[in-house]
Design brief:
Layout lengths: L1 E4 L7 H7 L1 H5 L3 E4 L7 H8 L4 E4 L6 H4 L7 E4 L9 H7 L2 E3 L6 H16 L2 H9 L16 E5 L3 H12 L3 E5 L5 H5 L3 E2 L2 H7 L2 E4 L13 H5 L6 E4 L8 H9 L5 E4 L20 E3 L8 H19 L9
Parallel strand pairs: 1-2, 1-3, 3-4, 4-5, 6-7, 6-9, 7-8, 9-10, 10-11, 11-12
Helix pairs in contact: 6-8
Length: 317
């Protein structure tokens, strides 16, 4: 079979070779493209003869998929699959697998990097030192004993909740599905409204779908404490950016740490959060540690082997 890695995976070609060794040993051809494109015609050209396509977070629409007529498996090197036309894949009988769990540690760690950066004014402290300034006006707050609200207790949300406990936070959670590991750790599930009103820190860890789009909007932000900070390392569309920026600029809430936006970076200069006060912004980098990027490459090729053996893993459809 022909396997096409249709966009870069963020690791060296040598690491790609290492990750795909097992599928090559089975006699499969692997073609690896080291440039990213969103041009439909180019994507069709790359994928038209592929039995299996590997993508990361490249938008993959029906317009491309329908022209890849040999396609049987789409192995997504990402956790979320909202950038893929899942309904069309289901209609055409194309199996879609994701790389569940590859970035759990990476995202959880950056979540706390953002939290501490906002609470302790680290970017501003860095700037003032370089300008021969002092800590005046930059004394921040501790995580210790804060109420830390986790929205979504999947793998990443659960990891974040456990780390928050280790920091000495009072952790509460809201999720459609409740996990025994969460309650056994002494973490209480509450309603979304309760979480928003009680939390000092609100951290989002839900996928983007019809039920979560705009989950945090003007009404929800109005419930938050004036001292609250919002962390979003999930998906940009989960939060109403205009409403959040307004709350930050009018100091209705204290701050935000944001890694994700409605679009992939580069984020336009006029984006409301780029110009909002009390924010620390990162360019959708939470998932992208050296370790996580290699792990996801291993997972997507492992998905292929398991699918071929009839024991498919990480199946979305």
């Amino acid at each position: 079979m022909k396997i096409v890695v249709i966009e870069p995976l963020g690791i060296t070609p040598e690491k790609v070779e290492e990750a795909c060794k097992a599928v090559k040993q089975k006699g499969h051809e692997v073609v690896y493209y080291q440039t990213r494109t969103e041009d439909t015609a180019e994507l069709v050209e790359r994928g038209k003869d592929a039995d299996i396509i590997i993508i990361a977070n490249l938008p993959f629409s029906k317009n491309v998929i329908e022209k890849c007529q040999k396609l049987k498996l789409l192995s997504v090197a990402f956790t979320g699959v909202d950038h893929v036309d899942i309904d069309y894949c289901k209609q055409k009988g194309i199996t879609v697998c994701n790389a569940a769990g590859y970035s759990t540690n990476a995202v959880a760690e950056l979540t706390f990097g953002l939290a501490i950066s906002v609470l302790r004014n680290i970017p501003a402290c860095n700037d003032v030192v370089r300008k021969e300034g002092t800590k005046d006006g930059l004394v921040g707050s501790e995580l210790y004993q804060k109420t830390f609200g986790v929205i979504g207790t999947g793998a990443i949300g659960t990891k974040v909740a456990m780390i928050a406990k280790a920091f000495g936070c009072n952790v509460i959670a809201y999720s459609r599905t409740k996990k025994e590991i969460i309650t056994e750790a002494g973490i209480t599930y509450v309603s979304l409204e309760e979480l928003l009103t009680q939390s000092d820190i609100i951290s989002l860890h839900v996928p983007l779908n019809a039920s979560t789009k705009g989950l945090i909007g003007k009404k929800e932000i109005a419930l938050m404490k004036k001292s609250a900070i919002v962390l979003n390392t999930a998906r940009g569309g989960v939060v109403d950016s205009d409403a959040l920026a307004e709350a930050l600029n009018t100091e209705k809430i204290a701050g935000a740490g944001i890694d994700v936006f409605e679009m992939e970076p580069p984020v336009p200069k006029n984006h409301p959060l780029v110009n909002a006060k009390h924010t620390v912004l990162t360019p959708h980098v939470a998932f992208a540690s050296q370790e996580a990027l290699y792990t996801r490459a291993v997972i997507v090729f492992d998905n292929i082997i398991n699918w071929e053996m009839g024991t498919a893993k990480n199946v979305i459809v």
